[in-house]
Amino acid sequence: MFSDLEDCQHIEKVLNTNNRTTVLETYRQAIKISLLINSSNTFKLVKDNSKFSNDKLQSLKINALKCSNCKLNNFNNNLICLQCPNIGCQINNHHYNHYKLSQHLFAIDSSNGLIFCFKCNNYINNSSLNDIRLSILDIGHQKNLNEFSNSRINGNDDSDNEFNIDEEFENPTNLSINGLKGFINFGSTCFISSILQTFIHNPIIKYDFFNNDDHYFNCDESTCITCSIDKIFTDFYTVDNNESFGMTNLLINSWYKNKSLTGFEEQDAHEFWQFLLNQFHKDFQRVQGPELSNGDKNRSNSIYGNCNCIKHKYFHGELESSIKCSNCGNVTKKIDPNFDLSLELTNLPSNSTIYDCLNLFTSNEILDNYNCPNCLKNSKPIKSLKINQLSPILSIQLKRFKHTLSNFVKNDLLIKNPLYLDLSSYLSTPNNIKNSFYELFALIVHTGSVNTGHYIVIIKIKNQWVKFDDSIVTLVPQKEIESINAYLLFYIIHDLKT
Question: Within a domain: residue 418?
Fold first, then answer.
């Protein structure tokens, strides 16, 4: 997988200067910390041969890899600046903010030791740096790691503060650490596995599951969907293998909750996504009770709505429809909750973009048979639709499937997917929403015909686009993403504070 990474002219330029030795040594020290693996071993201090527990060492590692801004460890997925002591998290975009302020081009991924170049906007390959990483990682077995420098932990380069590791121990695979597992297809269950991957690798949802055990410890229902997905998270991110996962527990519980899902026939991925969101809400209400499931009434940030379940916290938005009378000018407005945008493709030319779909979605419509409540006249008023409230995660469905009088047809019109989406032009009150900028996170693609199709999902993980085709996991070049003919798209609201 790493062999697919391309060389970078920017890092080559730096390594050809007098700073080469400093850069290589900084990289060596950083990955000794980031690639330190959990084990049952006891370590010894070099200076006095005293014992040093693995738990204490791991605690130092966690503290050393916290974001310099928000102190979030982010499952050891933060980026370490190669040119200064800064550490930036990805979930709050502090790694990118540091680059914009300092123009430090290179960062080290604390989970795998790879170098990220902000100018290339990608992970990069370099033989000198890769040799250092492999010498410490040693591909599968960590042998003869004779020293661990804690210069970043203690803020100095004192060589007396080093550790010896007495025993060799196995290194968990990078695929397991990053949750790069596929799902076993039990017979046309690709519509389920593709949706599940968008939840499992969504950093916001993942953070919620791993930092909120309240539901898991208080739920007593054996068929709980939320608990089933919680168990999938645990297997994906804690088990030391990358074997494909058999989702039998979730499958059986889903059949029990929704009889229409029973069997092994292909079904609609969007409908399963809606099913999961509804179950998250029902499970939350069942465990928390109606008096707690309404959330904090005093909370000023209305973007999360009133319920603290995953559905409402992260997917709830609002649409505002307005009807303007062409006779008296009276405007009637209505606000409706919304959890995704379902966009029409009718009458759009090929190579249109999501923006063209949004323009069609919010275009004015002349109504017939409408009596104005103000002047009581039917003046063929104009109806318009805008977004009144944005959600942290934006889900978009392109209406590719449609019933006709005689059959069910699929529209394969090519729609281009912008990697970043600015929704400011589609807001009812733009000035009241601080951030309307989104970053593409995942695409679900339906291939084949209506009756014999197949679902795959492509997800951005650590700035690499990864395709999950049931149990098969492969890389996809970023240049191909915009032209992929998606059915469902998921965007995450982007932090613009630079």
Answer: no
Q: Structural domain of residue 13, as residue ranges?
A: 2-171
Q: Domain containing 97 — which CATH number?
A: 3.30.40.10
Distance CA 101, CA 139 (A): 36
Question: How do beta strands 401-403 and 408-410 pair?
Answer: antiparallel
Choosing from 10, 219, 328, 454, the catalytic residue is 454
d(CA 324, CA 177): 55
Pick from 30, 33, 24: which is nearest to 131 by CA?
24
188 domain-assigned: no
Please tell me the distance from the alpha carbon of residue 51 to that of residue 79, in angstroms, as a whole number: 30
Counting the structural domains of the chain, the total is: 1
Of the residues 117, 190, 357, 372, only one is catalytic, namely 190
**Cβ–Cβ contacts within 10 Å for residue 256, how many?**
13
pTM metric for this prediction: 0.66
Cα distance from N-terminal residue to C-terminal residue, the chain: 32
Neighbour tally for 29: CB within 10 Å: 17
Q: Mind listing the pLDDT tens digit for each residue in 356-405? A: 999 999 999 988 888 888 888 888 889 999 999 999 999 999 999 887 76
In-domain check, residue 64: yes
Residue 74 lies in a domain: yes
Is 454 one of the annotated active-site residues of the chain?
yes
- Please state the rounded mean pLDDT for residues 414-438: 87
Which long-range contacts link 249-253 to residues 24+ away (Cβ below 8 Å)?
250/192, 250/196, 250/225, 251/186, 251/189, 251/192, 252/223, 253/223, 253/224, 253/225, 253/228
Degrees (nearest 5) of the Cα angle 428, 430, 436?
Answer: 110
Pairing type for strands 464-469 and 454-461 reads: antiparallel
8 part of the active site: no
